[in-house]
What we know:
Two copies of one chain form a homodimer.
Chain A: H1 9-12, H2 14-22, H3 40-44, E1 60-66, E2 72-78, H4 80-84, E3 88-93, E4 127-128, E5 134-140, H5 143-150, E6 154-159, H6 166-169, E7 185-193, H7 196-201, E8 205-216, E9 225-230, E10 237-241, H8 246-257, E11 264-267, H9 283-295, E12 299-302, H10 305-311, E13 315-326, E14 332-344, H11 351-357, E15 370-379, H12 393-411, H13 415-422, E16 431-432, E17 438-439, H14 444-455, H15 457-470, E18 474-484, E19 506-512, E20 518-522, H16 531-543, E21 550-553, H17 571-597, E22 605-608, E23 611-614, E24 621-623, H18 624-633, E25 645-651, E26 660-670, E27 676-686, H19 693-712, E28 744-747, H20 765-782, H21 796-805
Parallel strand pairs in A: 1-12, 10-11, 14-15, 20-21, 27-28
Antiparallel strand pairs in A: 1-5, 2-4, 2-6, 3-5, 7-15, 8-13, 9-10, 9-12, 13-14, 16-17, 18-26, 19-20, 19-25, 22-23, 23-24, 26-27
Helix pairs in contact in A: 8-9, 12-13, 12-20, 16-17, 17-18, 19-20
Amino acid sequence: MITLGGPRPEESRAMTQTAERSGGPRPGRFVGQSVRRREDAALLTGRATWTDNIALPAALHMALVRSPLAHARIRGIGAEAARALPGVVAVLTGEDLADDFAIGLPCGWPVTEDIKIPEHLPLARGEVNHVGEAVAVVVATDAATARDALELVEVDYDELPAVVDVEAALQEGAPLVHEQLGTNHCYTWPLAVGDVDAAFARADVVVEGRYLQQRVLASPMEPRAVVVDPDPVGGGFTVYTSTQVPHFVRDLLAMICGVSDSKIRVVAPDVGGGFGSKLNIYAEEALALALARRLGRPVKWTETRSEHHVATTHGRGQVQRIAVAATREGRILGMRVNLLADMGAYLQLLTPGIAVFGAFTYCGLYDFGAYSFECQGVFTNLTPTDAYRGAGRSEAAYAHERIMDDLARELGMDPAEVRRRNLHPPFHEPRTAPSGVMYDSGDYDACMSKALELVGYAELRAEQRRRREAGEQVQIGIGIGNFTESGGLSPSKVAAGVRLQSGGWEAATVRMTTSGKVEVVTGTSPHGQGHETAWAQITADALGVHPDDVEVRHSDTAIAPFGRDTYGSRSLPVGGVAVHLAAGKVADKARRIAAHLLEASEDDLDFTGGRFSVAGTSGPAVTIQEVALAASLAADLPEGMEPNLTADHHFDPPNFTWPFGTHICVAEVDTETGRTRIVRYVAVDDCGPLVNPAIVEGQLHGGIAQGIAQALYEQARYDAAGNPTTATLADYTVPAASDLPAFELDQTITPSPTNPMGVKGIGESGAIGSSPAVVNAVIDAVAHLGVTHLDMPVTPQQVWRALSVAGHTARTA
Amino acid sequence: MITLGGPRPEESRAMTQTAERSGGPRPGRFVGQSVRRREDAALLTGRATWTDNIALPAALHMALVRSPLAHARIRGIGAEAARALPGVVAVLTGEDLADDFAIGLPCGWPVTEDIKIPEHLPLARGEVNHVGEAVAVVVATDAATARDALELVEVDYDELPAVVDVEAALQEGAPLVHEQLGTNHCYTWPLAVGDVDAAFARADVVVEGRYLQQRVLASPMEPRAVVVDPDPVGGGFTVYTSTQVPHFVRDLLAMICGVSDSKIRVVAPDVGGGFGSKLNIYAEEALALALARRLGRPVKWTETRSEHHVATTHGRGQVQRIAVAATREGRILGMRVNLLADMGAYLQLLTPGIAVFGAFTYCGLYDFGAYSFECQGVFTNLTPTDAYRGAGRSEAAYAHERIMDDLARELGMDPAEVRRRNLHPPFHEPRTAPSGVMYDSGDYDACMSKALELVGYAELRAEQRRRREAGEQVQIGIGIGNFTESGGLSPSKVAAGVRLQSGGWEAATVRMTTSGKVEVVTGTSPHGQGHETAWAQITADALGVHPDDVEVRHSDTAIAPFGRDTYGSRSLPVGGVAVHLAAGKVADKARRIAAHLLEASEDDLDFTGGRFSVAGTSGPAVTIQEVALAASLAADLPEGMEPNLTADHHFDPPNFTWPFGTHICVAEVDTETGRTRIVRYVAVDDCGPLVNPAIVEGQLHGGIAQGIAQALYEQARYDAAGNPTTATLADYTVPAASDLPAFELDQTITPSPTNPMGVKGIGESGAIGSSPAVVNAVIDAVAHLGVTHLDMPVTPQQVWRALSVAGHTARTA
């Protein structure tokens, strides 16, 4: 009898041990170690500084009057009663602020030339297009008064018909979200590689699937918040905002508010999670700046939890159609993907690009010859969608792993075996994927084999057969999620058609002060990822110092003027590598100075433990701290050398990295109640060498939890009129730790050739491999009862109903 | 009959015209032009941000209880009544703050190994050593309450005998400023080059002088002020302070308060003049930080004008003895200099070094073989002395030009002729001066000849003879001030013995944003010098953009982490050159990208007006703004090139620069009243090529005014007990514009070989050449009546008395 319980203690330690053994291209004293996160002490003891903790004296507080209707014309706004409330400083409408903004909230990823982009003002003028859209702003001397005043603002609406479903939205006669566009169609973005029609024509079997990617909410621990403080010097503004992207916020606020980008300093203080929802510029940020400028006082706003449900972008929101053509032996010949992507009512920063970005990973780990993809963006009267952990690639992995199980069932083959027959062979130099992009490196069979072995696949299949044959009430299913993600978001390197106007580089500066301390400035903007710890490890190894002597500065555009911020699993493979390369430049300069001071050749120097000495001698040595002081005093430097020990590096990777993995979920489904219990969860990931295994584990834990949440629990639901029915956390069921299994983690390591550290990124992998593994497991548990399709979230109710429809009669309790 | 009036209109334009013609090593479209100062609009219309304008809500206000006695033991401090005053938050003594400071206020220029450095606490403990020393601090919710509370603090003193004169201080049995030192002697610093005794032994004539350099006050328009704001994020502090040296303040506050330097951000807002007095770290800055740390609220302090007179460092304060040995033909053979330098009661940052720094310029423009110098630092019960415009070099020029006139009188020669016989011949590569330092370049005869010609020297001498012979009541005198200053303070390059622990480099970063704007970050810290204008000119020429598109950021250690700040005429020849070199790196990178984009060879590209094109063709071109965008998008860059158009340069000059000049003052002295009127003032300066002639003129106007003020008006006076008798601006007579003549300025240009721009600096020249020219003119007017010695300030009373003593009987009115 096999164990279905969680990992034994010795298994949970395996990951760290493996990582410690693994090394990588640059093994070091600290890189590869589970150095304790320096960020955690403050976070865990309540001493973190969230934006809402920033209490600037005399700050004004902002609150937003939001539309209660999904679609309506604004006939008038009565603000007199609100203005009369003591403590209210101003009540302003979109009309009042007509001259405060140079442009509306911009879309930064117009995926096609003829994409339709509706104007998106920080405050609505004339019409509202989703519940939660802001129509007026109240400013008061305290937050409670501002919120009280909201109820005194009278908005007179003419309700209009709403559309909330992407398929309905494209039907003839559907209500139009934006009448002036004449259509709810936003764009069509196609990709075709190889002769797909021919592949399908010569196939032995074709399987097709229609899967729903429900809308989900980021639900970070910290909702959004912003404080704009007019600078006491120079006429600029300091913007404290809970964002993943302070540099984007600087550049975009400058454009929206008509301020020179050099007059805006954006600081992201401690940020309590983003998950893609804080990779944006929001109306409230622009409003706070406009009001601080108008009123000459700090202006603050903090999102309520219910505002988060309607005013912060949603994730996912797609209808996926996928078809695979294969031989009878299970070899895939071609794949067709057709998406309808729900834009919501407006295009936020990356809205149109999210689904398109997935185009390149629907082929997953599998090698075949013909691939086509088409995505249509569709407007609805709902909150805009945008990035959400795993964006595009999570949806892709879900679809391709669902269809692989469908194909296996069609062929009567084992799902692992079908997958194995289609894997790319191991490769260590870039290899072209069916979608036309170049994967960097991979040994997919090794990874999947390790996962199958770790979970005890054969024994599980035997146990499954036993239970089926016994007709037990609780059946088990085994679901596999093979996936690749693309890390190091680098749009400029993507093939034609992805028109994001931004380079994929990241900047780092490393400098030593005269006191021998090291300062690292990074353009990444951590919000839970532990960059302060990991970048210090990387720098410490390069400079032979202790990580405690390395201060990492970030998330402040005055201090780090160049940066592309944190999202898309880019921070380590782009930003961390930039730190590594900048630190390497500093070490090289230190070596030249040390050679000069020691009157030796650079090549003859040993550099160990932060000390330069002449190799093979016990003669004089000089520490790197002494070199830093000498570099500042500049009294005795090599001819022509500039003073000071500082260097920057702007690293522009030649390609995405392509982390990958195999996640396996073992689920028990109670066929009487429809309830699913995950009993095992094995994840073998390959993100190249590990800098800090504990951080990698943490990223995987969180990501897998998030994928399980989408698979089983979460959905932002609306009624037919566009009213949210999950407007609070009581309705929107975020799982708790007790709802989740223990995770069994392991990894393989195939270094990426795209960067000198070989690292690939791990921020999203957990959220990509998990939802298909879980849903496949549930279906696998009940497929023999006739249930071969379920949609996320796979609730007990849905499973029970599907079993009923399939003819499985539950015993009465 | 010659004109003794001010310059004719055509003369006052001469300087700008000459400068526009002059060019220099890097003539450009904007460099060399009198571009209007961008700083002035805000300054002239009351929109500048002085530190005192920074009104952080909920800020606490600090006021200091200061000693009314020059020397006393503190027996006790009664603070109860002050603490009881409503609005008072805290009253703290030195004892209360014993644990708040890791060290006292440091001396950063210990000129000898055995220098005596008394402990200098931010608040006195046990003993006070000068009037104005802080003994307790009051913190209140508003500034008026804080000041009211001062009168309620009762300090019980035991008065001790005080010493206020450096010569008296060295006498046996003099009261000791610091009893524990056992002496008032601080240090002795000697220098000797050549065989001075032999030179004096073989001389035909020896002349000796004893000159007094009175104490003067900086009297900036804006007194000192500081606001310390605890950062809302990260546990650090933002320090707004009216300083010349934000980087030094950061590093020194970190040491004094025991805070990591990376936790202190120093911002110098608009600073209303420094003149050396804000090149320091002061007790109030340390106290404000300590109190902000204790109380968790912003703490603010603004100096009153009367506090400025006792609590801000004084300038000068020396007794100079100088002797020159010469041949009968007027050739100098040797020079001896002996100084007593008044330290005051404590050593501030640079106190001991100021007089020592002058050691290298007592030989002025003159070439001779033997030189000795000795300076003794002496403690007195007065406010500490420190840097003051021209520091060290102004005193030197005063002494050597006084003694040149004494020598001329002794020899019966014309003062110009004596000088001419001793000038170095023209040189364009470094040349050793009698003091052992290397001068960079100079054509001293050309400069002096131009000044003599411009003033009409021969005609003036004729007029002087006429008036003498006629026995007119109003006599005229002609005074010459030849001088060299050392610009680009670079202590690491000075010969042995100057032990200032700092490199002489300056840092600059130049970057272009994607919007095509240019940001310059400079480590210099302007406080009136116009760096924003001048650095924009330099950058604009290098990058082919307009200066209006260049933003210059400075005086904020978060934004400009590397910097050595502004003093000692260093900003242009070190910091401006760093900007020039960094901009050159950016232009070079832009050229490489442009060549790549245009598919041309770099060498074939023209770069004109910000456009790169293939030379000799009318083919495609690319602007540098387009190059900047391409560098950010990074989609098409040369192989291996890092993205973004940014570069920094840390420029470490190989030597000081040595600006020089000849100033000539023509003064009328009313022999009946002793009143002096300056009727002509001609200055020919050589600071290398001019970047902005209007700014050069402004620097000269201010500097000459300051030198005239020392010569004729200003002195910080004390009674024998150490009580200041010039404690307000009513007693301390700062001259007004109406007290000053029109200045006739011109220049010669000998580029410095120490930097690629050839620039030398001009910040202090005016304050160096003027006081000897003026005093020499006054003496020259009355020497024939027997008055050959006067001391600064040359008041009418002093002149009248000296004439009386000499036997000149004034006619009664």
